[in-house]
Amino acid sequence: MHTRPLGTGGPQVASVALGCAGMSDHTAPADEADAIATIHTALDSGVTLLDTADFYGMGHNEDLIRRALRAGDRDKVLLSVKFGGLRGPDGAFVGIEGRPAHVKNALAYSLRRLGGDHVDIYRPARLAPDTPIEDTIGAISELVQAGYVRHVGLSEVGPETIRRAHAVHPICDVQIEYSLFSRGPETNGILDTCRELGIGVTAYGVLAHGLLTGAYRRPAGGDPRAHWLPRFHPGNLAANLTLVDRLRPLADAHGISVAQLATAWVITQGRERGAIVAVLGARRPHRVEEALAAADVALTDTDLRAIDEAVPAGAVAGTRYAAPLMALLDSERTPVPSTERTGRES
Questions:
Q1: How far apart, in whole angstroms, are the C-alpha atoms of residue 32 and residue 37?
Q2: Is the dihedral of CA 279, 283, 285, 286 positive or negative?
Q3: Which of 1, 5, 67, 183 is deepest in the core (most CB within 10 A)?
Q4: What is the set of active-site residues?
Q5: Using CA atoms, how far apart are residues 208 and 31, in angstroms rounded to an integer?
Q6: Alpha carbon distance 82, 245 (integer Å)
Q7: What is the pLDDT of residues 11-69, one digit of tens each?
Q8: Which domains does the chain have, with CATH numbers?
Q9: List of E strands, the chain
Q10: R_g of the chain, CA atoms, integer Å
């Protein structure tokens, strides 16, 4: 497994990380034995970073990871934990929290569920609307000083928020949706800002919620995800699957699947855009093995141009999420020019 530093001051990590959300929090939770076997397969294959959140399954995911880790595993695995997503008894999301007291309280419960004395990367899942990012990061910084957290991360935030957070405490990485179907970070300044500041990127949604697996089949009666993922709306879906079909000959030329090509593309972006780690969600061991094979795919500049021609930036039909969810993403807000913020030329 190839490794790379996650930011200037961050840890050395494998180029593929395991996202554990689907083991606890999707419409059909993974079989627990399969989930634990998946974690074991990932760690035995050289994966060093597990991504979770305290609201995945309302704590179930953290508890599952604790039970999956074997003797000696904790010394070689890095745990990345998100917090701040508030949920009701029915599982519905009811808000975003970033107050310092919540930060510390949430970590206390995460440490109890994970069964350790520290987490390696701690990050707010979203920018809290009523708490300055300086206050949230300041609280995590205090937890770093106390030894409960090793590194500070961010998730789904834009360039201005990244800079403000980094000024309070060095940021290890920014977690952002980035794939052939979600290339906003290339144009909205997120990747450039991270590279400038020496911050790593952990890219999730690499397979576009299943569209880029190359094996997606439209269910009869429509996909239930369409109400919150516009790219699955019937009209958009047909156009997006046409884009996937354009990738098949390119994948075939390398003897790999479309999913592996899409994963290799994300990993390869790290050559010019700074350290980028692909976070792959998996629920069964064989999915991990397929994903890890993509780390060994060497894409040339000619390959990258052919991929860009097949799926040009901006060609995907539909936004990442439905409008109410998009409104929660600081990463999707249009940056305000400095002249508008200050009222004068900068």
A1: 8
A2: negative
A3: 183
A4: 56
A5: 23
A6: 35
A7: 999 999 999 999 997 556 678 999 999 999 999 999 999 999 999 999 999 999 999 99
A8: 3-218+257-299 (3.20.20.100)
A9: 3-5, 12-14, 16-19, 49-53, 78-83, 85-87, 93-96, 119-124, 149-155, 171-177, 200-204, 276-281
A10: 19
